[in-house]
Design brief:
The protein is mainly alpha-helical. It contains 4 helices and no strands.
């Protein structure tokens, strides 16, 4: 039987809820970025929830933290893609406000998971 405890994690729930926001943002990017920024943003978005799920299923603290840290790194990757999109003028500050707020919330939640796992 699968251990689906990741679905109880608020961080995982927020990561899944973030996907439509991220995908809508990615769709605002030009078609020529489909294989660059769009693809990278979407893969990083899925990586957050995937690594939270996988990490929650691990038994050792070290393994859990490794996956939770990868999830945090994926959030940073998304943030970097968004910043690049701003600099390249593909997106406006108004376009990204909601996404930035959600990224910050998820980063805090995952950081809290790591901290509580280390106790």
């Amino acid at each position: 039987m699968l251990n689906l405890s990741h679905k109880k994690l608020i961080a995982w729930q927020r990561a899944i809820e973030f996907l439509p926001v991220l995908y809508q943002l990615a769709e605002k990017l030009p078609n020529e970025e489909r294989y660059n920024l769009v693809s990278q943003m979407k893969r990083a978005g899925l990586s957050v929830s995937n690594n939270l799920a996988e990490g929650s299923s691990r038994k050792s603290k070290l393994e859990k933290n490794r996956f939770f840290e990868i999830a945090c790194s994926s959030l940073v990757e998304i943030d970097n893609c968004i910043e690049a999109s701003l600099i390249l003028k593909f997106l406006s500050k108004n376009d990204i406000n909601n996404a930035e707020t959600k990224l910050e919330e998820m980063f805090k939640l995952i950081s809290g998971l790591i901290a509580s796992n280390n106790k």
